[in-house]
Amino acid sequence: MGTTFDTESFHRSSIDNALAELAAGEKVWARTSLRRRRELLGELHRRTGRFAADWVRAAGEIKGLAPDSPLLGEEWMSGPLALLQATAALEATMTALVEGRSPLDGVRLGSAPGARVAVPILPHDGYDRLLLNGFRGEVWLRPGVDADTARQRAGLAQLEPGATHGIGAVLGAGNVTSIPALDALYELYAHNRVVALKLNPLTDPLYPVFEMIFAPLLELGVLRILVGGAEAGTYLVRHTEVAHVHMTGSAHTHDTIVWGTGKRRKKQLDKPITSELGGVAPTIVVPGDWSEADLQYQAEHLATQRLHNGGYNCVAAQTVVLSADWPLRHRFLNELRAALELAPGRKPYYPGSDTRVADALAAYPDAERLGQGRVLVSQLPSTDTPLLRTEYFAPVLGVVELPGTGGEFLARAVDFANTELVGTLGANVLAHPTVIRRLGTAFDRAVERLRYGTIAINAWTGLAFLTPRASWGAFPGHTLEDVQSGIGVVHNAFLLDDVERTVIRGPFRPAPRALLHGEVALTPKPPWFVSNATGAATGRKLTEFYAGGNPARLPGLFLSALRG
């Protein structure tokens, strides 16, 4: 007879042992100097560069991407590149703290609508100005926080490094491979909690890569990486040794953790929890006098916002908000259909995708089936319809048309996004520069009124995810009872307190066309576009550059980007 193996008991034993080791590791972390904490980030940075190719190889296998697929660029950029940038930015913050300075020393703070302090995050250095020329970003702090307070509080828990806060359980996401690593780092540095990181089973093939990259933290005893299914996750988060939980996933998973699975809501979790949970992200298209090239480019842009990573991003656009009075709306929708159909095909790797697409088709039998499992639902009602309240987490895109033009339309669109759509993680706004200038303060007021944790103007909110000093999370104010897109923020490499949102701005046109129209922007079609033919090569070259910082790599990088 063969022996039986009790997987659940094995995972519980592994979790018990890991937490016992972390309890000892917390004492080690409390004694670890700021200087050593900074050095650890440098070691992680070097090891990420060393094992980046292994990371991307594993990610490609998880997602069913061929070794020569241009879509592997997504895995370079949202995988090792994201961690390289995060460790470098956190290391700079720790350097300031080691030297007794605020991380915001030397940073010229600005102002945002509503008497808010705006912290510039992009461009941060000369390489940002070269590689993301034309893109800008700020973190807006909550109203009432002044510049002096912002400088004093930057650093969060690293302002008192000896005051640790127990063991944090991090439930890793299954869609974007850098999320588990970035969330674990944030727990350790922003909150001074040692970390039990449980991988989503989908990303288990990355376990050996993460072991190699995070070896310095594993050896120090301040991180443990765990595997297992839902039972292991439940056991971990309810363990008496765990002081705090952070998760990335769906609101349904969050509510199951907090409230259990019964029909009667009874709280099951006896500790604080923070979360990033996605939602129904809008892209507001402000009517204007767009050329044929503008229509085509922005249609590709919007297709990317929906289809990047196969459509399995928490911040993927799901609702397009158009003006019913825009003369170009039909031409734009035709370009959008073409962009969705022509985008490279890929395996629907995320569990349940086909079922969610089928649910959308059942709810909207007249929806357009565009091939590759992609669905476009036009002429949606502007209230009380499933697509506005359900995050499909699949290549499903809806279109809502609202009356009005100019400021009248924009005000309606903001009200619609704030009141009719579930979630507040991210919102995109596409607007011609002439229209933005003409609207003036009305446009600024519209951006201020959007209650979203990240707002992208002529850019995609996904860029904020890749910007290490940006905050990433829902708009403040959600509760456990109505969690929507979650509670708290991550990334935030300045370690800012009192964060409200991140605002990213990009060029309306790519280079060289932008320069011909008076836009100061040298960036061609961004490498994260799903239609970028050299996305994989450019993503790899970006990663190699950020791993070593060798300027000799820049010419090859620029050439690859221009070919895209």
Summarize the structure.
With 564 residues, this protein is α/β, with parallel strands linked by helices. The protein is 43% helix and 16% strand.
Structural class: alpha/beta
Mean pLDDT: 95
The strand order across the widest sheet is 1-2-3-18-15-14-9-10-13-12-11
Beta-strand portion reads 15-25%
For the termini, the CA-CA separation is 59 Å
Shape: globular
Low-confidence stretches: 1-5
**Spatial extent as radius of gyration:** 23 Å
User: What is the total tally of β strands?
Assistant: 18
Describe the main β-sheet briefly.
11 strands, mixed
Output the number of helix runs. 23
Q: Helix proportion of residues, in percent?
A: 40-55%
In words, what does this structure look like?
There is one protein chain. With 564 residues, the protein is of the alpha/beta class. The chain contains 23 helices and 18 strands. The strands form 3 sheets. Strands 1-2-3-18-15-14-9-10-13-12-11 form an 11-stranded mixed beta sheet, sandwiched between helices. α16 links the parallel β12 and β13. α1 crosses α11 and α2 runs antiparallel to α22. The N and C termini lie far apart (59 Å). The N terminus is likely disordered.
Key terms for this structure?
alpha/beta; 11-stranded mixed sheet; 5-stranded parallel sheet; 23 helices; disordered N terminus
Layout of secondary structure:
Blueprint: H1 7-31, H2 34-50, H3 52-63, H4 72-78, H5 80-98, E1 110-112, E2 116-122, H6 126-131, E3 136-141, H7 147-153, E4 167-171, H8 179-190, E5 194-198, H9 207-213, H10 215-220, E6 223-226, H11 230-237, E7 242-248, H12 251-259, E8 273-276, E9 281-285, H13 292-307, E10 317-323, H14 329-342, H15 353-363, E11 368-369, E12 375-380, H16 386-389, E13 396-402, H17 406-420, E14 426-430, H18 433-439, H19 441-449, E15 454-457, H20 462-465, E16 471-473, E17 489-491, E18 499-505, H21 513-516, H22 535-548, H23 554-563
Parallel strand pairs: 4-5, 4-7, 5-6, 7-8, 9-10, 9-14, 10-13, 12-13, 14-15, 15-18
Antiparallel strand pairs: 1-2, 2-3, 3-18, 11-12, 16-17
Helix pairs in contact: 1-11, 2-5, 2-22, 4-5, 4-22, 5-22, 13-14, 17-19, 22-23
